[in-house]
Design goal:
Length: about 90
């Protein structure tokens, strides 16, 4: 499906319905294709979808397989954060 920018802007829901139906929507500016809106894929094909998101720069791939290590609290010096927030609020 091809849509001009004006038509896509005025009828965005039409483009979304097409994408939900599994179609790609090509956006055009004065008849020249400039972008594609496409479905991410089936829920079961998570690996394929993740690869596409990594290539597009939306997410960063894990460095290794398995679970992430448990987070450990970091000791800090100074006032507790709750006290700092309270002091900031009182200063308004």
């Amino acid at each position: 499906m091809r849509l001009g920018l004006r038509e896509a802007n005025q009828g965005f829901s039409k483009a979304i319905r097409a994408v939900r139906a599994g179609k790609e929507v090509v956006l055009t500016d004065r008849g020249r294709p400039i972008a594609v809106i496409s479905p991410l894929g089936a829920v079961g094909s998570g690996g394929v979808t993740l690869d596409r998101l990594v290539r597009a720069g939306f997410v960063e791939a894990a460095q290794r397989e398995g679970r992430m290590p448990s987070a450990r609290p970091v000791a800090s010096r100074g006032k507790p954060l709750s006290r700092i927030v309270s002091e900031e609020r009182d200063g308004r």
